[in-house]
DNA sequence: TGGCGTTATTGAAAAAGTGTCAATAGAGTG
DNA sequence: CACTCTATTGACACTTTTTCAATAACGCCA
């Protein structure tokens, strides 16, 4: 913006990749994946289209890299499980997840949207991220303190995850009517409640 | 197919629109929205690309119309609530929804994916459809037999809907481990259970 | 039955987007 | 201060979307 655009700016490959991926995630927050054209991104980044192809090969690969970046951010920034009893650990994990989404609402939204609407690869990337979160809850629950491991409960936990995601996103979009603590409590308490029902 | 393709067939605008939308929905079952090109559709329909633009203006508008059509099908074909007590009506509604998804798995999956990954408009269309399903719960439950109408419960019902969708899709993808009746029972029973927790 | 007007439909050509690659120039190095 | 390495460009080929003047079905009326 402030520099004369008549000059090329030459960055290291790492810097350039970072810049393009970050910009991609940012742009994705306000439009769908297929509205994220190479043209648009190149223009926003102030580079030629050719450079994008140099770094990512083709549009799909670029989209994939953007989604993977968003997923990695999520996994990395969500704090590891604290110790304590299982229920306490779950609350901690849920809180970390909620706080992350609050702090990165748009980026997270773009991850969810892209993954839900995308191809197999994109969905796998997202699945990985989600199971990384879930595993923190269930990893040390081998005794089934919270959830016994059966086909029915596996299914139900999937459903619960979808609910948690929806609750978090909806609550952030409109947090009136319920506090952060209430939300966390509801999400945590509903898991055993649902598992009970499925028993 | 059976007529010589060398002749134009001239239909009434309504017939033509129907044909193109139906074909669009059908084609969408086996590919994603952005693989549904104007070229492909025109060829499958045996018409020129120009005609599609005449009817729908541009590709996005066509996609939108196709998704809206699929959503309308869902609402329409999901049978209206029978009479009986609230819990019974909910079970009936859930069963109708489940059966619809079973019968139109791929098409429904495409609808969900298209809506989730798409732009604001597409998501709104899908939201409408889902709230049409949900409103059956609130509308005829004015006395709050199942769910009292508060901000907290509205939020929770949203979450529950997301869970139901995930459960249905996951169960169809792999129905081992749990019967249709068990699934319905779990979904129905979990709503009061979650509402209880949120109380 | 056959001309006639309305308008659904076409086809060609422009515009927009994707992908390729040889040529260019920025930045560190000796 | 050249010199080299390679990040970056821009022009071109190809595919897909969009436009629009020209065309030809179909219903209507004589």
Overall tally of structural domains of chain A: 2
How many helices of chain A? The count is 9
Largest interface: A-B, 42 and 42 residues
Helix-and-strand structural type of chain A? mainly alpha
Helix and strand succession of chain A? HHHHHHHHH
Radius of gyration of chain A: 20 Å
Pfam family, one (chains A, B): TetR_N
Protein name (chains A, B): TetR/AcrR family transcriptional regulator
DNA-binding region (chains A, B): 37-56
InterPro entries (chains A, B): DesT_TetR_C (IPR054129), Homeodomain-like_sf (IPR009057), HTH-type_TetR-like_transc_reg (IPR050109), HTH_TetR (IPR001647), Tet_transcr_reg_TetR-rel_C_sf (IPR036271)
Task: Present the secondary structure layout.
2 copies of one chain form a homodimer.
Chain A: H1 13-28, H2 38-45, H3 49-56, H4 59-77, H5 86-103, H6 105-117, H7 120-138, H8 151-173, H9 180-198
The first copy, chain A, binds a DNA duplex (30 and 30 nucleotides) through helix 3.
Commentary on this structure:
Chain A is an all-alpha fold. Chain A has two domains: 1-77, Tetracycline Repressor, domain 2 (Orthogonal Bundle), CATH 1.10.357; 81-198, no CATH class. Chain A has helices at residues 13-28, 38-45, 49-56, 59-77, 86-103, 105-117, 120-138, 151-173, 180-198. The longest helix of chain A has 23 residues, at 151-173. In chain A, 36% of the residues are buried. Chain A binds chain B through residues 31-35, 112-114, 116-119, 150-152, 154-156, 158-167, 170-171, 176-178, 182, 186, 189-190, 193-194, 196-198, and chain B through 32-34, 112-119, 122, 150-152, 154-156, 158-167, 170-171, 176-178, 182, 186, 189-190, 193-194, 196-198. The first copy, chain A, binds a DNA duplex (30 and 30 nucleotides) through residues 7-13, 16, 37-39, 47-51, 53-54, 57-59. Chains A, B: Residues 37-56 bind DNA. Chains A, B: Residues 14-74 form the HTH tetR-type domain. Chains A, B: InterPro entries: DesT_TetR_C (IPR054129), Homeodomain-like_sf (IPR009057), HTH-type_TetR-like_transc_reg (IPR050109), HTH_TetR (IPR001647), Tet_transcr_reg_TetR-rel_C_sf (IPR036271). Chains A, B: Keywords: DNA-binding, Transcription, Transcription regulation. Chains A, B: This is TetR/AcrR family transcriptional regulator.
């Amino acid at each position: 913006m402030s520099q004369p655009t008549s000059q090329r700016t030459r960055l290291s490959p790492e810097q350039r990749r970072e810049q393009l991926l970050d910009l991609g995630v940012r742009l994705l927050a306000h439009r769908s994946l297929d509205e994220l054209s190479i043209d648009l991104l190149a223009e926003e980044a102030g580079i030629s289209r050719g450079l994008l192809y140099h770094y990512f090969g083709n549009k799909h690969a670029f989209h994939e890299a953007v989604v993977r970046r968003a997923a990695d951010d999520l996994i990395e920034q969500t704090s590891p499980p604290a110790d304590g009893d299982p229920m306490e650990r779950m609350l901690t994990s849920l809180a970390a997840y909620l706080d992350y989404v609050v702090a990165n609402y748009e980026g997270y939204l773009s991850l969810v949207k892209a993954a839900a609407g995308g191809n197999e690869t994109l969905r796998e990337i997202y699945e990985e991220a989600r199971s990384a979160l879930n595993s923190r809850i269930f990893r040390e629950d081998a005794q089934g303190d919270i959830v016994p491991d059966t086909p029915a409960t596996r299914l139900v936990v999937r459903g619960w995850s979808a609910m948690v995601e929806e609750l978090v996103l909806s609550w952030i979009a409109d947090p009136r009517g319920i506090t952060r603590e209430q939300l966390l409590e509801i999400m945590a308490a509903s898991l055993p409640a649902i598992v009970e029902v499925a028993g």
